[in-house]
Design goal:
- It is a single chain.
- The protein has 591 residues and is an alpha+beta fold.
- Helix content is 53%, strand content 22%.
- A hairpin with a 2-residue loop joins strand 4 (132-143) and strand 5 (146-156).
- The longest helix has 54 residues, at 7-60.
- The protein has helices at 7-60, 65-79, 110-116, 157-208, 222-258, 277-283, 295-298, 302-313, 358-393, 400-436, 447-456, 458-463, 482-498, 545-550, 557-567; strands spanning 82-86, 92-95, 121-127, 132-143, 146-156, 262-267, 272-275, 318-326, 329-341, 347-356, 442-445, 467-472, 477-480, 505-513, 516-523, 571-577, 581-589.
Amino acid sequence: MGRRRLLWQLYPSYLIITGIALAAVTWYISGALRNFHSEQTALDLKARARLIENQVMDRLWPNETPSVDALVKKLGADSATRITVVRPDGTVLGDSQEDPARMENHADRPEIMAALQGEVGKSTRYSHTVQQEMMYVAVPMTVKEGIAAVVRTAIPVTAMDRTMNEIYGHLARGGLLIAFSAAVLSLIVSRRISRPLEEMERGARRFARGELGRRLPITGSEEIAALADALNQMAAQLDERLRLVVRERNEREAMLGSMVEGVLAVDTAERIIRLNRAAARLIGVPAGEVQGRSIQEVVRKVDLQRFVRQILQEEGPVEGDLVMRGNEGERFLQAHGTRLRGDQGQQIGALIVLNDVTRLRRLENLRSEFVANVSHELKTPVTAIKGAAETLLAGALEDPKGAERFIGIVAKQADRLGAIIDDLLALSRIEQEAGLEGVALEEGNLRPVLEGAIQTCAMAAGEKDIRINLFCDPELRAGINAPLLEQAVVNLLTNAVKYSDKGGIIVVDASLHAERVMIKVQDFGCGIDPQHLPRLFERFYRVDRARSRALGGTGLGLSIVKHIVQSHGGEVVVNSTPGKGSVFTIILPAP
């Protein structure tokens, strides 16, 4: 059953109460008026009987019955009243509407019997004589000897009914007017009571929707005003607390979103409660679409699932290493997990913090490879020097020609060893300057730098009859560190000379393209297979180790070029076609 509004509970109640009250009052007033009118009519009939009593008494002595009947008929016609004179024995002496001779004895009439007892008799009954309801009042006429006769007056009850009907009509019209007025007043009162409550109900709904800025008007009775004030205070407190909660949530979201570490929380059923953007990125899932879903459904990584179950089962903190494989390759994560507990200390889930250690692992691998490569590269000349020295000590010094050859080997390998050490020191110095303070750059012309690099390599190029052509606008400028950039170009030219055929050409072209300065070093030598290009700038990486060593390379030249260019805020790329040559391009930001 639906609930009704307060207005439609109060208003009908008021109408019912008003109707009952009007009905009761009308019933009571109607009865009282009818009794009052009846009493007044009886008094009026009694007064009429007293008025004609003396006139009738004069005609009773001597016996003048005909004159009594004539008097009664005259008085009855004048007063519109039925008048009857009855002897004590019940004989009718006169009647205003009938012939007394034809009327029956009235000694048994109630009002006559009362009057014969010396009282004023009153009765209302149907008269067979006049064929209608009548009210009778009988008054005794007393003399010294006793009651001489009884005078009875009567009027039809229909006259009383007409009078009462008129009164009832007035009462009905007055009652309707009162009922209408009461209905209007009841509606006003009901609305006055229900309207503040409805306003508070609407206000409470606004508060429930979070619209806490608008307050309720404090009107109406003391109780309703107190309720509105209490609701306003509640809204103010809720607004303050919600603002605090939102502020804390935003701060928490900001902290979680700004963390580099990934944070993942799951409940005891291994459903995801929360994860920040870093965790979503590390495990490869969309951050806003996985809350409430099972970890097995979202992350198809057995290691992570096993790690979550381990946290939920063990008491203390858990640590582990995870390997996540995705489109970007392998990602190494260091995971720290602990149980997540509620306010009462009960376990509600698990909390996992993920740290991306991929770069550290790669750096460790690079360091290991670097140490191995350095050891290998240093071991080769050291072994050659040691072998030559042992040969000399074993007696080769006695042979001048053999001694000279072995001493030449020692000198050559010592130079090679020195070149490796110099390149390592140069690479270390460049990395330190770029990492700590940054390389000092100044805007300058590129052509003098390129000319200096070409001049440095001119002797080696001349030995192979190689021509180096330079194309560079004298006004072309860039933000550079001239000595370092010259060293990078020298390294590229050195490689180009080494891998070019005798009588070949090397082209150095510097130009401005799309707000970037491009320095190209192009040779037409043997070229490089595509499989070697991604690793070409790694330390000690060689396409052809035997040929590189034969040509005197250390394996660090291109790595040095890469670090110099990166310190300038640029990049270096290579394009090569086997058998047709290679193009190394240094790309620098325009000034």
